Amino acid sequence: MDYKDLKFKICNECDRGLACSACGRQNSQLNTYNWLEDVPGINETTDLVEVQFKNTRKGYYKNVGQLNLKKGDIVAVESTPGHDIGTVTLTGRLVILQMKKCNALKSLDDIKKIYRIAKDTDMQKYREAKAREHSTMIESRQIAKNLGLKMKIGDVEYQGDGNKAIFYYIADERVDFRQLIKQLAAAFHVRIEMKQIGARQEAGRIGGTGPCGRELCCATWMKSFSSVSTNAARIQDVPLNPTKLAGMCAKLKCCLNYEADEYVEARKQFPSKDVKLQTSDAEYFLFKNDFLQGLCSYSTDKNLAINLETITAERAKEIIEMNRQGEKPLSLQNNGRIKASRKPADLLDGADISRFDKTKKKKRKRNPHGTHIKTKPNKQRKNNPMHPRIAQLLIGILLLFLPVACQDNRTFNSYKHIKIGGWARNDTVMFNIPRQWEGHYSMELDVRATYKFPYRSISMIVEQQIIPANKHHIPVKSTTDTINCRIFDNNGNMLARNGIFTSENTNHLSSFHLNRGDSLRLTITHIMSRDELPGISEIGLCLSRIMR
């Protein structure tokens, strides 16, 4: 099919919720998909028809004249007084199902009838009436304000023939609007009907686009409004921010109830927030849950996001069960029991594939005098001793790098990531170093910075705690020091090992002595003027044992 040959009909006559058979367009999408439309004779099963008026208002009428109606036809229907103009949105057997759903089933005598398909004169009156709706609403608001009524007129809808107007209003208290009706009737010379609606109904009548980018649910498909409480937001761990939880109607968003039941079922598979996890190096508190992915994030601080570790809900339950039995895993990620990896069997392992190749005989070289030159076989070449000078050079290189290799006595090396938004002043970077052997140790503090760092240097407070193996007899030794780490020089160039985006700066801390079984705890905070310090990506700590 060539889409260039298709001719799209655009109808400019449709306005304020009406559509025509030419385009089938409607401002409101409150229509039901007629899945019985292609069944032959299905429209002859009943003469009931669903008709839609302005915005979300609908009604059900009888096709007493047996008119050949289809979806999108504009019809004139019975009203009190006169007639109204609406659009056919549903015909056939589904109309009865819709009436049961909306509790609109009445006796056949109470159902009003369809007069005719709208004529040009009917449409002319309809357009004139609709043109007065906005000015009528503005003037009626002023009249209500002059009378001192605590109410808000949100919308005005004229009947198709212009003989009646419906005023939709919002009020928190009961309002005596008898005097208001008299003044409105005298001002507009029509029959007045007052209808009270809620905030959600008003948003549905006006319409709009939600923060999700889609049309409002109350203006498209919602017909009944259930109560929404903040408990639905708490269940889903949504931040209780009033500006984000409120919809266009200034009430809690209806979509908070959509997935609340799923989150209630998912929470049963997660551990309680009051249960803390104990490992050999620290104690962890639940910080947040990701119910959709089944993940739990734990922090070493009860109120702040410090040293966050993310594990699965099954792993958290496993650690809780281990703590009940008096066991502590090595960390949240593993228990310290390393299973030997099983190497898959290779049937060709140890077999030389070149055994299938045919051996080629090498031709003997001839010298110009015609005598043969004897070549040494490969085995004899491999057994030849290396040249003495080359051997001495290799031994010298090995002796040169041997002291450097022997000096790598690092017993602890770890990096902590800083969140992307910046290093907050109240965020503490903590390192828990496990028990060490007796000896002298030195520490190096590494700061990885990017070009987003706004200063030439960073000042930090480093608190070092030596926790002895026997805590009951020996007190904890604590020392605090202030460190200033230069990041850039006076010309704005980094003073450290540069990568593509980051620079690593090393600061040597003082050396100290540890007894056997002592452990360390190091906490680092910055004391810069900014609360959120950008440009710091990681803080690292390296503990080395000094060999004497």
UniProtKB/TrEMBL annotation:
Domain PSP1 C-terminal intervals: 112-197
Ranges of Basic residues composition bias in the record: 358-384
Gene Ontology cellular component terms for the protein in this record: cytoplasm
Domain of life: Bacteria
Database matches in InterPro entries: Motility-assoc_lipoprot_GldH, PSP1-like, PSP1_C
Region (Disordered): 357-385
Signal peptide: none
UniProt protein name: PSP1 C-terminal domain-containing protein
Species of origin: Prevotella micans F0438
